[in-house]
Specification:
alpha/beta, five-stranded parallel sheet, four-stranded antiparallel sheet, about 15% strand, binds zinc ion
Length: about 575
């Protein structure tokens, strides 16, 4: 039994996530965590909401709520949607937790002790009307280059010129619209990532088993332009983790908070601590996942994320961990994803484009989405959600293949033998061939799941479902029954057992349907089919079952057209 720590990139708090976000980290992380648990490993699966920063403040202001209340409510919403999609977190924490406050301040203190923090003075725009410093992108004005009147203080969207806020003509606050702005001197802390470059490079060089997508992004950031730049870790904001050096006040940093990119990944650790506190576990128990001096040296740590998050997880967060000089656990494997696009364009939270987690669950159960998204995971390139493709995947794989097999077998058995596993007959060459084929495919499925090759695993699982259908079609027990009822009984007995096998191995992908299949078979034997032949006689003759409700309903063309129209515009 191995100990496996799994984290998914933590979703930002400013709204409900779309399906592109879901397949970019949380859903594949759940697939892997579920599979590893089923294979008997000790798994700790952590996630959280990422709650600090200006976008959270602005979203709260737009909703007319204090930011703390907004975050608490949105966390509850995101947690409920995660449950709706069957995401099996051991803990779904919050980066605003007291545990993360203390840990973030602790890490900053350790980095300062190790001479990896530098204080710098900079000039930043202060808005009197807003009573705050404005991040560059929250200052708008006219581009001096092209005359576009909605250029942002960091860049002009129209001509793509990189700008400083002071370059803008007629600058104003993007928050209040006020033009009462002033450039003021302010001090910030910088993490001296440039000092860590050599250590990070050797560490990444040693990760020869990582996906190319992960290491190529890491190397690009490590080597591009000026190389790994020092990065500001503080902001002039109210909402966030107050800047402290461990437990001590930090002179000159009063009223400032840590920058969200610095505290967010530390929440992976804090989430384990929150888990311990919420479940009456000891400090030693959460530390055994995170401290190599306290048991975590035998932990395998796997992270899941979209490609936009790779730089933070391959460079910035490891710089924090290594720079602390403490024996914290570093990641062992990073699985990263390209983007899922939506119907000829991109999913966009800010533009409300695409289908969002709450909308998806309103129209179909989560297994439909889980199957389609996972079997189309954007692993080697971007992939695209279209309603035609979604309809085809659901109807073919889930309804025609898996659902139809379950329905035909249980209904035929009920009509000819009653609702118990029938007795009589024996396996012949067709059954032996099926068992050999399933064994080979199942071993490949296991290898793909171990390697987190999600599309390959899904396609092998689909092939395993297809093999059962082909066997049934060829065995044709409904014909055989007339001349050889014992032979028909043997073939149906095997097929009923195959439903149990399908339930067990499909569970990481479609957990709810797996439960329905197990319930219909009146069994809680969810042992993994290490030996396929033995697994196909787990339910003995005489074992009672019931015919389940339809597992998967087909998506009609009318439904498809209606949903496509409904979700084509902006989300309200
Ligand atoms: Zn411009």
């Amino acid at each position: 039994m191995a100990r496996i720590l799994v984290t998914s990139a933590i979703p930002y708090i400013n709204g409900i996530k779309h399906l592109g976000n879901l397949i970019g980290s949380q859903l594949p992380a759940d697939l892997y965590a579920r599979y590893m648990r089923q294979r008997g490993h000790d798994v700790m699966f952590l996630c959280a909401t990422d709650e600090h920063g200006t976008p959270a403040e602005l979203a709260a202001a737009k909703a007319g709520k204090p930011v703390a209340q907004y975050c608490a409510e949105m966390h509850a919403t995101q947690a409920e949607l995660a449950r709706g999609f069957g995401l099996s977190f051991d803990h779904f924490g919050r980066s605003s937790s007291p545990q993360n406050h203390v840990l973030t301040q602790y890490f900053a203190g350790r980095l300062a002790d190790n001479d990896l923090i530098e204080e710098k003075s900079e000039r930043q725009v202060y808005s009197h009307a807003d009573g705050r410093f404005l991040p560059d992108r929250y200052i708008e004005g006219t581009c001096p280059n092209c005359g576009y009147d909605k250029a942002r203080g960091d860049q002009c969207e129209n001509c793509t010129k990189q700008l400083d806020p002071t370059d803008l003509i007629a600058p104003h606050s993007a928050i209040s619209g006020s033009t009462d702005l002033e450039v003021r001197e302010t001090k910030h802390l910088y993490l001296r990532q440039s000092q860590m470059r050599g250590a990070l490079e050797s560490w990444i060089d040693a990760k020869t088993d990582w996906p190319i997508l992960t290491t190529s992004i890491a190397r690009k950031w490590l080597n591009d332009g000026e190389g790994l730049r020092d990065r500001g870790i503080t902001r002039d904001l109210d909402w966030g983790v107050p800047v402290k050096r461990g437990e001590q006040d930090w002179s000159g940093m009063e009223g400032k908070v840590f920058y969200v990119w610095f505290d967010a990944p530390i929440e992976y650790i804090a989430s384990a601590q929150e888990w311990a506190h919420a479940n009456g576990r000891s400090e030693a128990e959460w530390q055994s996942w995170w401290r190599t001096d306290k048991g975590a040296d035998d932990v395998r740590y796997v992270q899941f994320m979209g490609k936009d998050n790779v730089p933070f997880h391959t460079l910035s967060f490891p710089a924090t961990i290594m720079g602390s000089g403490d024996p914290w656990k570093l990641v062992d494997y990073i699985k990263s994803f390209n983007y899922l696009n939506y119907d000829g364009g991109q999913f966009s939270t800010s533009q409300g484009r695409g289908i969002f987690m709450d909308q998806a669950l309103e129209i179909l159960p989560s297994d439909y989405w889980r199957w389609w998204l996972l079997s189309h995971a954007p692993e080697n390139s971007d992939s695209e959600f279209t309603w035609e493709n979604f309809q085809a995947g659901v109807n073919k794989d889930l309804a025609d293949v898996l659902g139809n097999f379950v329905s035909r077998v249980t209904k035929f058995c009920r009509s000819k033998f009653g609702e118990t596993v029938p007795d009589g007959g024996a396996h012949g060459p067709a059954e032996a061939a099926l068992i050999a084929d399933l064994t080979q495919r199942l071993r490949r499925y296991e290898a793909h799941m171990e390697a987190i090759e999600i599309r390959k695993a899904a396609s092998e699982l689909r092939a395993i479902w297809v093999a059962g259908n082909e066997y049934l079609q060829a065995a044709a027990p409904w014909t055989l029954f007339k001349t050889n009822p014992e032979g028909a009984a043997a073939s149906i007995r095997l097929s009923l057992n195959l439903i149990r096998l399908y339930a067990v191995i499909s569970r990481p992908f479609i957990p709810d349907a797996a439960v329905s299949m197990m319930t219909a078979l009146s069994t809680d034997d969810d042992s993994w089919p290490d030996d396929v032949e033995a697994a196909l006689s787990a339910l003995p003759a005489g074992h009672a079952f019931s015919v389940p409700d339809v597992l998967f309903t087909k998506i009609s063309d009318d439904q498809r057209d209606e949903w496509q129209a409904r979700y084509s515009g902006r989300r309200a």
